[in-house]
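Example record

One chain of 138 residues, shown exactly as stored in the release files.
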Amino acid sequence: MKKILTLAIALGLLMIGCASKPLNLITPPSDFSKSCEVLTNVEGSGGGLLFWGIVPIMVNTRFDNAYQEALGKVGGTHLMDAKIVDHWYYIPYVGTLFILNLEGTAIRCQGYTPVEKKKKEGSTPPPTSRGDTGFGGK
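Predicted structure tokens for this chain:
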């Protein structure tokens, strides 16, 4: 009986740690047709894996990643006319793979900070504009 109670408490504590932060989407101003510029149609995607059906790996952040990717491509502040398509695939002995695709129209409103494109880790910076070829020669 003690083992079952200990196991139940341990699983309960593990489940508490599986929570995500809320995603706050900023509503465009009511006069957005005057103070905002329509940029273009954008799309972004995000994914995650529910390992063994228990352990979430980037499952809870897939919408945030897709939203940031879509707006970051053009430096938008808001997304209008959003369309969300969520796919999931079962991988035997591994878990469930979730893929979210987000499409919409990006707009940039005055007084809001544009979303910047996320930089990939380990990427090299572009060469400088002073004719530097990156080979170290003069």
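Notes: Residues 122-138 have pLDDT under 50 and may be disordered.
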